Amino acid sequence: MTRLLTGNCRINIFINTITVQSTSRMPVFAAIKIHYDHRQSLPRHLKYSTVPSRKEYDDYLKLFREENVGGNGFHECMNFAIGQSDLVRFYLPPTCVPAQKFQNEEFVFFSFTYKGDREMPSHVVGVHAGARLIDRNGLVRGAPYAIADVEPLVFHVEAPADLVTLTVPALPYEVTDGFFTPPLSKWGYGLRYIEPEHAGNILGTSVEQAALRLANASASEKEVLERQIDVLQRIGVRYGLNVHGANGGLKKGAPHPGGLPDTEIGYLGERHVYERERDYVRNVLRREESEVQWTSQVVPTSPFDIRTLRRTSDGIREHFLEVKSSVLGEGENVYLSAQQLQFFEGHRDGATFVLVNFGTSGPSVRDLALAELLSEYDLTPVKYKLARRG
Fold first, then answer.
1. pTM above the 0.85 mark?
2. What's the mean pLDDT in 159-184?
3. Beta-strand (E) ranges in the chain?
């Protein structure tokens, strides 16, 4: 039996339990307190995935200095940015850095929000499993993650990308009930160690909530939720936890499509188009910036990078962008996956390839529908699948 958390209510339901044999030694399970990402420019399923603007960063400083919530900065802003790399680098607040004796341990970090947060107080918002401490003092992220006139963003830990996910929707918790943490009369700030049963409760409840939300999810959120369920169940298998799943057994994750040869150029191209789309939606369509969603920063296997809006004869409709960036010339050294082609075939009137070329005079951008792309470029197969004869 497990419990669904819905607002302030708990609903007891009976479901099948997935029992698996651990294939790895038990890690250290830890709960940390971080800022909630209250940026209005990001929907909840894409939080903690992009660098904030200077104004957004200053908002966090103001929250700390005037309301004593969180810390003196917002280094958590990139904690769930899951790009083309196989590793996710993330930040630990000073009170959440484990002692030196744990330097060589494997961790599963669950991120909880502060009780004083306005938008999302006392919630579990994500998990990083298979995590290793890299530097207890923090390493500078460097370009392209800089914010003008702000101290460099840092990270302390790395975790495999396929073991990192937000918990959407976020899970409300009460420290006194012993369900997501040991019973606590007061948490305060800092690190708390939890038991495997608490970790299993978090993973299982999040799987259930994500599965319930799938039916009414948008295309962008659906990509995130399906990946989330995969990751949470994968973590359960890795550590032999009883992860309750409303949708049954472990799903086989989709293969990771080949990324661009230069991941930094790919990131810069997507960021350039993301900012362009936010300006367009805000200034031309007069809609909220949160309508533009940088989906690939949370689901790198998504067949599109950015969900945006376009004005059509039927009104304002959602539109999907796949960004291809290069420094060699427009369309040079660019790769498409079969998954992307299939998606664009099914969304011919609502999806566009954006070719970004970084030249000496700055980035140039060209938008092409699938038909236009295929009229100018040939598709050259670069991989073959083995099929047994006879």
1. no
2. 94
3. 2-6, 9-13, 17-18, 28-34, 87-90, 107-113, 123-133, 139-140, 154-155, 157-160, 164-172, 192-193, 243-244, 306-312, 315-326, 351-359, 362-368
